[in-house]
Here is the input.
Amino acid sequence: MDVYLFNDAPNHPVEFDIIIPAAANPATKAATLRMDVYDIDLPDEVDEVYVNGKKVGTLTGADGIWGVNYFDIPIGTLRAGRNRIKVVIDINNGGWATNIDWGIIKLSSQVTITQGWITPVRQKKGMFINLFATVSGKPAAVQGFNGTTKICDMSDPDGNGTWSCQYQIPTGWPTGWKSNIYIKAKNAAGGVLSQWPGVTVQ
Here is the structure.
């Protein structure tokens, strides 16, 4: 660490371990790797970054300048104990070098549904309802359910944490019935559920 290296140096590639306690349950969480790096000569220099053997991206920066890089680490990549970070410098052998000062992993917060709702809450057969949820953390998926049956995959196109989907009320649902519709935000540990907002069939 903190050595200016070319890829023909005897201590290349750059490798170091970040230790995560078992109590943090890292295998079930997404995370972010932050590294301070120096002198990345884009676009010609390509330096690949790996976490436990999984490629998470390439370094970005500028000639002769220190900068911070952030990489998303997918759920299931990390483990309790030692996690090996590896940077392969100048994979195209263009004669470029860089300096990796330090790195840190930040685990994402647990997935939480802060609010779930349906509009309208009374709807006629064959018509549509809209499901919404505000979700914190980085869920692998957010879905709408009626009981144990998935009715829609929700999306967050704006990336603001508000997920939504649309569902057409089946014509076979009985009039006056209140369905058990709820929302699930899934992660590797199984996920969390909203309360049961429900919709009454007219």
